[in-house]
Amino acid sequence: MPLASVNGTEIHFDVHGTGDAVVLIHGLGSSGADWAFQIPALRERFQVIVPDLRGSGLSGRPAGPYSIDGFADDLWVLIDHLGVERCSIVGFSLGGAVALAMALARPQACRQLVMINALPTYRVDHWRKWLEVHLQLTMVRLFGLRRTARMVAARLFPDPHQAPMRRRVEEVVGANARRPYLESVRALAGWCAAARLDELTARSLVLSAEFDYTPLEEKRRWAAAMGATFRVVADSRHGTPFDAILATNRVLAAFLAGEDAPTDGLTRDAPEQVPMVAPEL
What we know:
alpha/beta, eight-stranded mixed β-sheet, 9 helices, globular
């Protein structure tokens, strides 16, 4: 099991393929294993580095407080450990915030940035953000992580054909330790990079689900402020890398290769396209 000693804890990571380095950063309560649907599409052309953030997956679970900038620093130390000088960075949800923090911390080392269903600020400035933060905290405190995971899974993947996705969320999120999970929620809620977007130099893409937790227009405005390409995946909810695997992989493969991200056919996977299990890596 590959582990690196980073900033007082152990960070678990996997590396797949060869070529220009691409770092994939997972979302809240998840791990690098959740990129299993994207890795096969990328590893033939890129060196794909897949870490678990501190407090998640197989990484260490040190006491908090956690922070987005702290997560970002952990991953730069890991990348230095691997001898990688420049990389592209892809982040989903919480991982999108970490990806942006990394790109701002070392502009010269970030070749390209992709944020999937993520924002440059999660400070509570709107009732919907307040609700999302406090809903997470309250559900965990009242019901525990296993019951919270079932509710999150039903919200992310409500359709009958998405039952395997729901089970996966229930297993993965439900297995989290309560304290690190809540530390990660608090880290996201207190983070804001809005005032630093003019420092961003990486070629950037914001990929958004049509029915994500936060409004499309807000992400469109932030993409414009970042000078980023903006793409929308029709009929997708927050879990776009899982409910729109084909669209996500098409966009990532093109953009990371230096091409324009496609605009046509970006939609949620049809029922017959939904895999029953994750691919073997």
